[in-house]
Structure formats: C-alpha cells, structure tokens
TrEMBL record:
GO terms for molecular function: citrate synthase activity. Pathway: Carbohydrate metabolism; tricarboxylic acid cycle; isocitrate from oxaloacetate: step 1/2. This is Citrate synthase. It holds the Pfam family Citrate_synt. One of its GO terms (biological process) is tricarboxylic acid cycle. The active site is at residues 308, 366. It catalyses: oxaloacetate + acetyl-CoA + H2O = citrate + CoA + H(+). Belongs to the citrate synthase family. InterPro entries: Citrate_synth-like_lrg_a-sub (IPR016142), Citrate_synth-like_sm_a-sub (IPR016143), Citrate_synthase (IPR002020), Citrate_synthase_AS (IPR019810), Citrate_synthase_bac-typ (IPR024176), Citrate_synthase_sf (IPR036969), Citrate_synthase_typ-I (IPR010953). CDD domains: EcCS_like (cd06114). One of its GO terms (cellular component) is cytoplasm. Keywords: Acyltransferase, Transferase, Tricarboxylic acid cycle.
Length: 432
C-alpha cells in the first residue's frame, strides 16, 4: 500500500476506492487510477491528456511556472552554453555525461553512420519536385527499416543502441537530401572530417561548382538550436513515438511517426508561423498598429512566437538563443532582409510594452529560431525538418526508455462513445 492515498467516493452508490499517490523527483504528484474501472466501473475523461501522466521517465523535466528545463537533471542553460549537440544526444540516450573517451567513441560512431544506402536516393526521385520536405523526411525515415531489418530486434539492447546511433547519424543526411531535391540541386555526401552541424551545413549549401566555407558562427548557432530542441518531455510528437513504439514497431517506424506529428503547425511549425506573421505585418512602420491589434481580444491577429503554452514565465531556451540570434545577425547582417529588421523591432517594442511584460508574453524559442534559420538562408518550409533533427535524440531516448520499462503496455486510450445506440440493419429497398 502506498504511504499516501486519495479516497474516491461514488456518490450514486456509496462505493469507495483508495487511489495511491505517486511522486517523482520534481513536479506534481499523480493519482494511480489503474484500479478505478475495476473498483468503480469508470474511466477518466481527459481530452489531449493534459492532466494525465502516461509514463514514468528519467529523461526531461519542465517546470513551466518557474521557467525550468532539465535534461537528465542538467539545466538547459548550462548544456547550451558548455556542451555540444552530440554530447547532449549521448546524455539523453545513456543518462550520464560521458567521459572524453566515451564521447570520442560516440562521435566516431555517429560520424561513420552518416552515409545512407545508395538505393535510398531513388526514393527522392519518386517525390514531386515541390513536395514538402517533411513529407520526404517522414517517408524516407520510415523506409530505413527496409535496409536494416536484420538489426532491429527491439528486445536486444545492443540492437537498440545501434539503431539509435544510425537514426541520429542519418537524419541530417536524409534531411539535406530532401533539401537538395527541393532546390533541384545534386545531393552532397557527408564528410567524416566535419562536425555534426558543420556536416549538415555543408550538405545543405555546398555545390559541386564552388567551394563552400562553413561559417563558425552559423555552425555554433545551429548546434545550440539542436540542443534546445533535443527533448521537451511528453509533448505531442514524443507521445506519438511512445504510442507507436508501444506496439512493438521498429524504431525507424516510431521515429517516422514522430516526424509526422511534428509536422503539424501547432507543434513543429511554430517558428514557420512566426515568419508568416512577420510577412503579414509587412514593415517596421506597421509594428505599432499590429501591437495594438494583438492587444485587442476581438481581433484575430496574434503575435506568433510570444508566450508559451508550457512556460508561464520566460522560456529558458529563449534566454539562451536570443544572444545567439543577435550574434548571427551581427555576423551575417540584416541590411538586405527587411523581415529580419522587422523582427528585431518587434522584439524591442514587445519587451518594453507593459501589456506583454505583465502577461509574461516574452519571445519564445520559436521566435528566435525562425529568425536564425531565415538569416542562414533556410526556406521556411524546411524549418520543421531542422526541428526534427534536433528532436531525434529525445525521441530515440524516450523510445529506448519505453521499450525497457516493465510496466509499459500497448497504448490504448479510452473514449466516451456518443454515436447511435444499437440498431438493426435496414435493407436498401426499405430505406427512406
């Protein structure tokens, strides 16, 4: 029996049940309702599962009220300033910060798994020239199981680690191939001499006709953005990966399902929505007008990239990336892009406006990430693909944790049925 319980009484029958109270390292306690249906004959109703704890997890913790984000207990601020994306990826998967030799081994493994089978290039030829890059990414990631079907035994810990390394390594290669297909340019192969983000930039922007020089400011900014997006607790795409994985599906299929969920504009498309909003505002002169529209509850206009559903205080990721955003703009310049100048003016006004300050509607990570991607010359429809690359270590870590959890069962949410009651079939000639 748990030390702490809650007694639930059915007022219609007088029946009672004792529900154990479970607690974690941080966060609110939860009621264990697994005996609710057996004892009282009820399920719970929680649209969107926003009040339901679906699993136990050691990976990520968020305190939205205090603006806290921890990966394996480490504050995101420390990791973003001092770590690298691959070190964070290994931390998420294995649970501890690596030693130098462990990190070297991990980086070597990722670097030497970046190549994809040549046959995979044929998949891209099957996509229309203007296919959305997320459609290509989702389809091609799912197809990886056809190439590695002999090493996807989810009950083998070594197979799970090998799949994790392959997915993290190949995501940039697949993403860059989708980008090149979208741009009508030849694919660029990965280079083992380059860093993870340096390789990604090279595969995106290098051409056979000229040398491409990787800008270290851009490389650092991209690495930091991937760290900030690496995991975010049980969000929609992560929960999708877990739900798909709970069926015993192979990890490539589970990660492809996460890509599909991330594609939604309410999730991974938020930074794209920021640039669409800037397009609507149009010019710097229009900013005061649109600030007033944003304050008007009856006006449909909303300032995208301000505030956050989870963070009721300042998004801790935005604090970090704001500095990097300004470094990128200083390095690459905004003189030729009025939209970037507009974004900086909007940030300046909103941060000084009492209406937004009082409501804690600060710029979030999506606001700054969209601006950085724009400055790097990345098309808006490709933003979510970069988000997917960053989120992959989190997805795979959550999948590995789920597969290894003895309490995990196949996901099977319940419903309130509101359709027709039982009725008899009416032959076609008798229907009116």
């Amino acid at each position: 029996m748990a030390e702490k319980t809650v007694t639930l009484t059915d007022n219609a029958t007088g029946k009672q049940t004792e529900l154990p109270v479970l607690g974690g390292t941080h966060g609110p306690e939860v009621l264990d309702i697994r005996s609710l249906y057996k004892d009282l004959g009820y399920f719970t109703y929680d649209p969107g599962f926003s009040s339901t704890g679906s699993c136990r997890s050691d990976i990520t913790f968020i305190d939205g009220d205090r603006g806290v984000l921890l990966y394996r207990g480490y504050p995101i601020e420390q990791l973003a300033e001092q770590s690298s994306f691959l070190e964070v990826a290994r931390l998420l998967i294995h649970g501890e910060l690596p030693t130098q030799s462990e990190l070297d081994d991990f980086e070597h493994s990722i670097t030497h798994h970046t190549m994809v089978n040549e046959s995979l290039k044929n998949f891209f030829n099957g996509f229309h020239y203007n296919a959305h890059p997320m459609a290509m990414l989702t389809g091609v990631v799912g197809s990886l199981s056809a190439f590695y079907h002999d090493t996807i035994d989810i009950n083998d810990p070594e197979n799970r680690v090998l799949c994790a390394h392959r997915i993290i390594a190949k995501m940039p290669t697949i993403a860059a191939a989708a980008f090149k297909h979208m741009m009508g340019e030849p694919f660029v192969y990965p280079q083992n001499r380059l860093s993870y983000c340096g390789n990604l930039l090279n595969m995106l922007f290098a051409r056979p006709t000229e040398e491409f020089e990787i800008n270290p400011v851009a490389e650092k900014a991209l690495d930091q953005l991937l760290i900030l997006h690496a995991d975010h607790e049980q969000n929609a795409s992560t929960s999708t990966v877990r739900l798909a994985g709970s069926t015993g599906a192979n990890p490539f299929a589970a990660i492809a399902s996460g890509c599909a969920a991330l594609w939604g504009p309410a999730h991974g498309g938020a930074n794209e929505a920021v640039l669409n909003m800037l397009e609507e505002v149009g010019t710097v002169e229009q900013v005061p007008k649109y600030i007033e529209k944003a304050k008007d509850k009856n006006d449909p206009f909303r300032l995208m990239g301000f505030g956050h559903r989870v963070y009721k205080n300042y998004d801790p990721r935005a604090t970090i990336i704001r500095k990097t955003c300004h470094e990128v703009l200083d390095e690459l310049g905004v003189g030729n892009d009025p939209q970037l100048e507009l974004a900086m003016r909007l940030e300046e006004i909103a941060l000084a406006d009492d209406y937004f300050v009082e409501r804690k509607l600060y710029p979030n990570v999506d606001f700054y990430s969209g601006i950085i991607y724009r400055a790097l010359g990345i098309p808006t429809e490709f933003f979510t693909v970069l988000f997917a690359i960053g989120r992959t270590p989190g997805w795979i870590a959550q999948w590995m944790e789920m597969v290894g959890d003895p309490e995990q069962r196949i996901g099977r949410p319940r419903q309130i049925y509101t359709g027709a009651a039982k009725r008899d079939y009416v032959p076609l000639h008798r229907r009116r």
